[in-house]
Specification:
12-stranded mixed sheet, 10-stranded parallel sheet
Length: 344
């Protein structure tokens, strides 16, 4: 489909610098621009591509001031990245195929009443007394255990496993291979070995949560492991039993949360962040990639390193680490000099 820059600007409540009649029909990266393509500039380090890209139009922030002549048409919006997301969602709604119906190879327990608009692919399994709300899409080989609850307009991709008694809110997306509600890692050490502690709770995802591929959210020993409204988890994340994650928090791949650790609202975790058990992370906390946390963290903290420390302190420590070989040599010389002076 083709749209004019003017139409796009009106949809985004933005303004146009250049020819409003320019037509675009695809999205493209700024460094790989092509005729008829719409790109965007959100990170200043990519600005130099804006002056050489072959794209027809670009989304930029309202505050952007070019340092060179620009050949393409600009659409100025308050937030270029957010505007791009809005446009891509719109485009996806035009092109995405809406599956419907229940495949004859799916298994649905007789106790389950499916809404008419539900889609279920081949070899999907729905256990006893499962509740599935309207508008859900459940893809092939998904497993939903007994007494689970699935809210409205959820998407459950292939090979997702949702254990018994778990609860999924409205508009949740769970990507392929994820496991919701497996047993938490609970064992009691005794003389003859480790005895399993039954995990009698469940896992709960609130509304608008998205879970990446192969992420695992363990069920609680008692009560619930909870993921708050609007939170987005990347691929390959481990959330252990009895953990809680607040609302609108985002975590990149390979984050690991040990048991009974708690994360607040609007936090941002980079890849491979690790949390020890029984700690509390406040609201709006930012943890850079590979940061390790072993104690409670206050609201608004920005930490880096393992163990985590304030960002400025961490950068100073990193700079100091590079100087350690030189400092070691200097220390050896000083020790030898002191020995000579002492002998005299």
């Amino acid at each position: 489909m083709k749209f004019t820059v003017q139409q796009i600007a009106e949809y985004l409540h933005g303004s146009v610098d250049g020819d409003p009649g320019v037509e675009v029909n695809t999205f493209c990266k700024i460094e790989e621009g092509q005729q008829g393509g719409l790109t965007f500039l959100a990170n200043p380090k990519y600005e130099h591509y804006l002056y050489e890209t072959k794209a027809s139009a670009a989304l930029v922030n309202e505050s952007f001031k070019p340092s060179q002549e620009i050949k393409l048409t600009l659409i100025r919006v308050p937030d270029a990245y957010a505007a791009l997301a809005s446009l891509m969602q719109l485009a996806n709604s035009f092109t995405q195929k809406q599956e419907s119906g229940v495949d004859k190879l799916a298994f649905v327990d007789p106790s389950v009443k499916l809404p008419e608009d539900c889609y279920m692919g081949a070899f999907a399994y729905i256990g006893k007394n499962v509740q599935i709300a309207k508008g859900c899409r459940i893809y092939p080989h998904a497993y939903i255990g007994d007494n689970a609850k699935i809210g409205e307009n959820c998407i459950i991709y292939p090979h997702v496993t949702i254990y018994h008694d778990c609860e999924i809110g409205n508009r949740c997306i769970i990507h392929a291979g994820s496991v919701i509600g497996a047993d938490g890692f609970g064992f009691a050490p005794e003389a003859d070995g480790y005895h399993k502690i039954p995990q009698l709770g469940n896992a709960v995802l609130e509304d608008d949560v998205e879970i990446g591929a192969n992420t695992c959210i363990d069920r609680a020993a008692m009560g619930s492991t909870k993921i708050g409204k609007g939170t987005k988890l990347d691929n390959l994340i481990q959330v252990a039993h009895n953990c809680t994650v607040g609302q609108h928090t985002v975590m990149a791949a390979q984050v690991g949360m040990a048991g009974s650790s708690h994360v607040g609202d609007w936090c941002m975790f980079g890849g491979q962040v690790g949390l020890s058990g029984h700690i509390k992370i406040g609201n709006k906390v930012s943890l850079a990639g590979q940061t390790g946390i072993m104690s409670d963290i206050e609201d608004g903290s920005q930490l880096l390193g393992s163990p985590g420390m304030p960002v400025r302190e961490a950068f100073r420590s990193i700079a100091m680490m590079k100087r350690l070989p030189e400092m070691s040599k200097r220390l050896d010389k000083l020790e030898k000099l002191i020995e000579k002076l002492s002998s005299k």
